[in-house]
Amino acid sequence: MNLIAAATAAPTPSGSDAQLIIAALVGIAVIVTLITWLKVHPFLALLLGAVGVGIGAGLAPGDAVTSFGTGFGSTMTSVGILIGLGAMFGKLLSDSGGADRIVDTLISRSSQKALPWVMALIGALIGLPMFFEVGLVLLIPVIVLVARRSGLPLMRIAIPALAGLSAMHALVPPHPGPLLAVSTVGADLGLTLGLGVLVAIPTVIVAGPLFSKLAAKWAPVPVPDLFLSKEEDGGEGSTRRRPTFVNALIGILLPVALMLARSIREAALPAATGTWVDLLEFLGTPMVALTVALLYAMVFYARGGGMDKAAVSKTLGSSLPDVAGILLIVGAGGGFKQVLIDTGIGTVIGDAVSESGVSVLLVAWFVAALVRVATGSATVATVTAAGIMAPLAEGMSTPEASLLVLAIGAGSVFLSHVNDAGFWLIKEYLGTTVGQNLKTWGLMECVLSVTALAGVMLASVFV
């Protein structure tokens, strides 16, 4: 709740509207130029761009630096720990042969034509109760290995899985974003969940398996050399036994089940108390849930894969250097986002469009999309748009209020780009350039957002 409270407190704009908008646009352009033309490391480019935007928007130099540090620290707290735990889990899944078992099972039971659809379903199921970053670190080993073993282009596998994750993140409670919007505008949770699933299904299809065909043409990148098995890297132990499919799948689904149980309890029994509630709250915390999954992997993946204690220790130690650069880049993206938030640009955008005479659903989507593009945060976009639209929801019917929540959710994921920590996380994992990531992941988010909006507008005709 601290994150929500912080995001809800609208900052005082640090300069005029024109100054804020120009500073943000120039800052983004500088970051892209530094990375693509001057080949500056993204971490340094984001740091320089963020501080420059803060100063250009009217913040004192010291405040701009403080704002960047605050965003960096909060991102490392919320995302960095998860990336570290996920890297360890993913390495164990790979080195034990668990990922091989899952991939071989999926490939043997699915045709190449069906694999993108299977990955979209897996992404959606895992993304339902989880933060996007948690689902991503769990799925990355499977995405990479399925692409490598199947021979399909990387984007034909990655984009559908990412579309499933992102759609759940935006549209379906009990995910935190939609759940927050439901509470803010006074919508019915059950109806919103049902409508969210109905809108999410065609959205995932369009933005996932269908769009992945274009993404594969626009970004024909090789499969990254991550999570190589013993057979593939030429190391010893290529004949070692592997965990069973069920054993490997339990490890992946364990944090999903823990977080889902917590979310269901919060939605169904918000006033419940007792030891079991405290236990669910604890185990369902993303960091704890992923730690439990890691401990499970250390025991059961190691046993199933014939790994001794020394092998497990070596695997865990070797997993962290690979993500050191990713951690710094993701943290810097979070710092840039915080600078944009502290300048007040989200407030300026919301005030500029809240009084327009356009359809309420379109305005809600537009406000969320603009704040998302400006700040890079789906949470901030959801909070801002829901707060602006809440007074207008008072006269709405129950179905209309639920559709308002979905319109806000659709807008909150529009166009992931350089100010979004997730943009850098995906870029580094998949080994794309900035341009390729914009044409694939960034554009996929646009397709997903617009398709979801179309579904919401269509549904509004019948309610």
Question: Layout of helices and strands, plus pairs?
Answer:
Layout: H1 2-8, H2 17-36, H3 42-56, H4 61-95, H5 98-109, H6 115-127, H7 132-150, H8 154-171, H9 176-185, H10 189-218, H11 230-233, H12 245-268, H13 275-283, H14 286-305, H15 309-319, H16 324-342, H17 345-353, H18 360-375, H19 378-393, H20 398-411, H21 421-430, H22 434-462
Helix pairs in contact: 2-3, 3-4, 3-16, 4-7, 4-14, 4-15, 4-16, 5-7, 5-12, 6-7, 6-8, 6-10, 7-8, 7-21, 8-10, 8-20, 8-22, 9-19, 9-20, 10-20, 10-22, 12-13, 12-14, 16-21, 17-18, 17-19, 18-19, 18-20, 19-20, 20-22
Summing up helix and strand content along with how strands pair, one would put the structural category as mainly alpha
Could you name the ranges where pLDDT drops below 50 across 5 or more consecutive residues?
Answer: 1-8, 234-238
User: How many whole angstroms does the radius of gyration measure?
Assistant: 22 Å
Helix tally? 22
Along the chain, the helix and strand elements come as HHHHHHHHHHHHHHHHHHHHHH
Strand content: under 5%
Number of strands: 0
Main sheet properties: none
Distance between the termini: 32 Å
Residue-averaged pLDDT: 83
Shape: globular
Helix content: over 70%
